[in-house]
Design brief:
The protein is built from 4 helices and 8 strands. It is an alpha+beta fold and 238 residues long. It binds a DNA duplex (13 and 13 nucleotides) through β3, β4 and α4.
DNA sequence: CGAACGATTGACT
DNA sequence: GTCAATCGTTCGT
């Protein structure tokens, strides 16, 4: 069934060549500006050296949430620096990966200057390459669960949610501290193709943070590319 | 040391 | 729509 997509755009554009690293200076700025800029950018994971048959995985970031400052009651930084959130207080461009609900990993990109804790949660990615490897990684994670049931997943939904992004790209807490702006990093961010027009962006409240109370629960700090078929949620939450 | 609680997902009524 | 899976982090005793 879900073998190969037919309507894939011709790879005439150098999506194959090494893209430009995502500029750290953008991530050093205000988190909402960085969030807007990172939409449309690429998340890249090289094939593992020990896995010669492995594919490179690439996806377009289409949904993010900003967690801004120690004062943000929804942020892991709300209790000050701890062993878990320490990297959020570090320099921009580093990865912060944590485990939620005891079973899912979530990838964040640290933003704002050092000592100011802030990050962007990568909530959804539109697969562009390596879908086979993503599906394989998702299946391997799922098979570990006691209630696992094999179910088909469309290419566009392989990384449609924060836990799915980490699963599809094989990301876990050991990746915390990786420099996502370093072109030599096996997991990194790249600028969108230069000819690509800036995507439309829509802002909504953040998901799953009611515990934070107001005004934090209502801050429109979730930014999405509304046209994407890869947004999180059962029906691709616009 | 114990216990409550998730920046979620997927199965099921 | 409801609910369980599963474990690291945090906080209270």
């Amino acid at each position: 069934m879900t073998r190969r997509r037919v309507g894939r755009p011709p790879p005439a554009t150098p999506t194959a060549g090494p893209g430009s690293p995502f500029p750290r200076g953008v991530l050093a700025g205000p988190s909402l500006d960085a969030a807007r800029a990172i939409l449309g950018a690429l998340l890249v994971r090289d094939a593992d050296p020990g896995d010669p048959s492995g594919e490179r995985r690439v996806g377009r970031i289409v949904e993010v949430e900003a967690y801004i400052g120690e004062e943000d009651r929804a942020s892991h930084a709300r209790m000050g620096p701890t062993a878990r959130n320490r990297v959020m207080f570090g320099p921009p461009g580093l990865a912060y990966v944590y485990l939620v609900y005891g079973m899912h990993h979530c990838l964040n990109v640290v933003t704002e200057p050092e000592l100011r804790p802030a990050a962007l949660l990568i909530r959804a990615v539109e697969p562009l390459a390596g879908e086979e490897r993503m599906r394989q990684a998702r299946a391997a994670d799922r098979s570990r669960r006691s209630d696992a049931v094999a179910r088909p997943v469309a290419d566009a939904r392989l990384a449609a949610g924060p836990g799915r992004v980490a699963s599809a790209f094989g990301i876990d807490r050991s990746h915390t501290g990786l420099d996502l702006c370093d072109p030599a990093s096996p997991l990194r961010l790249e600028l969108p193709p230069a000819d690509e027009t800036r995507p439309d962006v829509r802002a909504t409240p953040r998901i799953g943070i009611a515990y934070a109370g107001e005004p934090w629960a209502s801050k429109p700090w979730r930014l999405v590319v509304p046209d994407s078929p890869s947004l999180s949620g059962p029906r691709g939450g616009r």
